[in-house]
TrEMBL record, chains A, B:
Signal peptide: none annotated. It comes from the Bacteria. InterPro entries: Cyt/Met_Dipeptidase (IPR051458), Peptidase_M20 (IPR002933), Peptidase_M20_dimer (IPR011650). This is Acetylornithine deacetylase/succinyl-diaminopimelate desuccinylase-like protein. It holds the Pfam family Peptidase_M20.
Length: 470, 470
């Protein structure tokens, strides 16, 4: 093995850490809030700052990519070796809104280091986790004596992630050729905790619909007619209630078709995580657990598909009472999907099931919003094993596994690039994403730099391109 | 039998009909809209007008009764006979709002006779049906040669019925002594149709609650937490769905305790009504029937208790989607009750049932508004038989039976006066209550006068006071 000597990597990082942090602080001072139209210029300035910094890092290609909204950044550094896999790193340079008046202890766009923590909006989500790749890449080159990375490296750093990535799908489809890669690495997630480093192996997908139910042509008197005609508010309730069976499995026939079940090994590894249900409930601001029979809380939110009522409304909702059978009722329902579920087949199954649930006299419409596909990398995937080795060398600890219950644009990359999505992140739940006093733990940020420094060499050596690839 | 000769009654009515209609038109010109604060003076003027007219009719006592809101009218005319039963007639002198701009063909407060119809707001609901008692009573006296009615007659004509009778309960409790009666007659309902005269035998009662369900302390991310914690919108749906079993019976244990079942005779008589389901569905503005198994539509709305969701809300209800587990959800549910159901026991049964339906982690509150008791007069009740005879003599047809699915202040009278509630009304479904172009059929109005003229004599002769009465 031509493993990069870890001590060389560490001493390189030691030498360059101060400059790296000073640069990151400069970037964090740019309030690249994508949700605020008044900050559009700052988002652009952030993209331009990053392009300059990536060129300085050595990327031969680094450019601002215009989207139909705010600009992204693309950079590319070919390996120069014929057999090298191509890796696309995804992150984002826009941030959530923040103002000291929201309750911050410090100015959100004036980075401050207190002990082991760097406080600033974007410190963890996601500038810190994008930026660790720059020093990681330099350490990789320094330690291996290379002049180009061991893999063909591409970066795509989005500018609208915090605004729901409205133009991301179109952008990557337009640029699909230049984004071609064998592997996608998302650096926009986190780990279990400060003391339990982990690698995320997948995200859930999502289907998302509104169901409109219509009964009487207008609200009618519940005394004169109630109990003899169907009530759309009752139908809505019965529909939402029928979503789950007694085991709290989703009762839509065909919903579970193709679901990739948890392996015994995954369940064992999830069970090794120091899960504290009381603490988790505090984070969930909830007062009890409830979910699919036969699965733990973590398995339910990471590895099982679910159905949730996000909103319901119909009839009289003001003060006092109005004894009516309402004319209409509405449901917003979202479904989290896991690997193996086909979003189109799921939507069709839901559509068919809803139509079959309704009593005569209730008319309905069902409208789906764009679905998001799930993604999952199996534990034995060689790229995941490279990631775990790189993280293990950085942390000098066993690396465990998590998944992400939410759904994100990573799945779009999976579709367009046609490559598996992996995750490399060092943020922790206490980092305050989307909240006040966002921070990054400096020792973890350094581990991110180190893991990035080890990863490209390990991949180049151990990741074999699929036979049918490229 | 000292039956009043019907021909004498008819010729008396013939002679006085024109003056009676002219007086009614005067009253209808007073826009006694209780819902409109600007019309408070008109409501008072309507009360004063009625007091004067009742004195003119011969009532020795006729007075305006102040409530905490708008005034009612009370009048009393003792029979002078020791054995005579005491009858309290209930009606109201306030009316629904109306303006020509709402779509009326004529001015709502300028009565117009077109053919057999008198158009005006209040023509049927309820001034016409209150006022037929004045001419009816005069015909009764004229035909029998009496100087006082055969029964001790009391009238209570409310001024806030169209505003939900907010002060009626307090008023009648304060005046309970003067309202003491053996029978209550409500003249504020109608018949099956122009060609099928009927007597209403009861009204449903009502219990009415709001259920507030609380889950997470604030909305939480459905990707991060959904499927592992209880969702109050799902709980609301499951609660509302569980209200009915597969036979669409109310599934709350104890709910049906004491329910007075329909007799075979009542079902036979209901079945004789010329019920046209398509026509009924048009009136209900509905597109299908649904209800308790084993009962017809009429039985469901008149004689069976029901549960209706009047309103439901929770979570995100705006455009697009928001993938949350909402912090709270709410239900407004009303229950129609029938004779034999005790409102307090029903409320307790609902309260207990709701508490037992909720998963751990969902907190709830349940709040009941004031309940309304059901009332029902059995077909063999002697006062009902008198009513049917009086109606039969007026209409010279078989009199069938209906019930009223709604709930009204009549039930309060039943409680406070402690007497059975009967109904005498000649309005028909086409009369346009609470709608535009309200009217009364003049031939039916005359039948009301006639029935009232026969009723008091029949009651005096055939109604025996209960042994424990008075």
């Amino acid at each position: 093995m031509t493993k990069t000597p870890d001590s060389v990597v560490r001493s390189f990082i030691d030498q360059h850490q101060a400059g790296f942090l000073a640069d990151l602080a400069d970037w964090l001072r740019i309030p690249s809030v994508s949700a605020d139209p008044d900050r559009a210029g700052d988002v652009r300035r952030s993209a331009e700052w990053l392009v300059a910094k990536l060129r300085e890092t050595g990327f031969p290609v680094a450019e601002v990519w215009e989207s139909d909204g705010l600009p992204a950044v693309f950079a590319e550094w070919p390996s120069g070796e014929a057999e090298a896999p191509t890796v696309l790193v995804y992150g984002h340079h826009d941030v959530q809104p923040a103002a000291k008046a929201d309750g911050w202890d410090t100015e959100p766009f004036e980075p401050v280091t207190i002990g082991n923590r760097l406080y600033a909006r974007g410190a963890a989500d996601d500038k810190g986790q994008v930026f660790f790749h720059t020093l990681g890449l330099r350490a990789h080159l320094a330690a291996t004596g290379r002049t180009a990375p061991a893999v063909n490296l591409k970066l795509l750093i989005e500018g609208e992630e915090e605004s729901g990535s409205p133009n991301f799908g179109a952008l990557i489809r337009r640029q699909a050729e230049r984004l071609a890669a064998d592997l996608v690495f998302v650096s926009d997630t986190g780990m279990w905790s400060e003391t339990t480093p982990t690698v995320c192996t997948g995200m859930r997908g999502k289907a998302d619909c509104q169901i409109d139910l219509y009964g009487p042509d207008s609200d009618i008197h519940s005394g004169s007619f109630g109990g003899a005609v169907p009530n759309p508010a009752v139908t809505a309730a019965e529909l939402a209630a029928a979503l789950h069976d007694g085991e709290r499995r989703v009762a839509v026939p065909g919903f579970y078709d193709g679901v990739v079940e948890l392996t015994d090994r995954e369940r064992e590894l999830f069970a090794k995580l120091p899960f504290d249900e009381d603490g988790w409930l505090r984070t969930a601001k909830s007062h009890g657990t409830q979910g699919e029979a036969g699965y733990s809380t973590l398995e339910r939110i990471w590895a099982r598909p679910t159905a949730e009522v996000n909103g319901v409304w119909g009839g009289y909702t003001g003060p006092g009472s109005k004894t009516i059978v309402p004319a209409e009722a509405h449901l917003k329902i979202s479904f989290r999907l896991v690997a193996g579920q086909d979003t189109e087949r799921v939507e069709q199954a839901i559509t068919d099931w809803v139509a079959g649930q309704l009593p005569a006299g209730i008319r309905h419409e069902i409208t789906f919003r764009a679905a998001t596909r799930p993604c999952l990398t199996p534990l034995d995937h060689p790229a995941l094993q490279s990631t775990v080795r790189a993280m293990g060398r950085a942390f000098e600890q066993e690396i465990l596994f998590t998944r992400e219950g939410g759904s994100g644009p990573a799945a779009d990359l999976q579709d367009v690039v046609g490559a598996p999505v992996l995750f490399l992140g060092i943020s922790v739940p206490s980092d305050g994403w989307h909240s006040i006093n966002e921070k990054v733990e400096l020792d973890l940020l350094r581990k991110g730099v180190e893991a990035a420094a080890y990863l490209w060499g390990d991949l180049a050596e151990n990741y074999r391109l699929p036979a049918a690839g490229r």
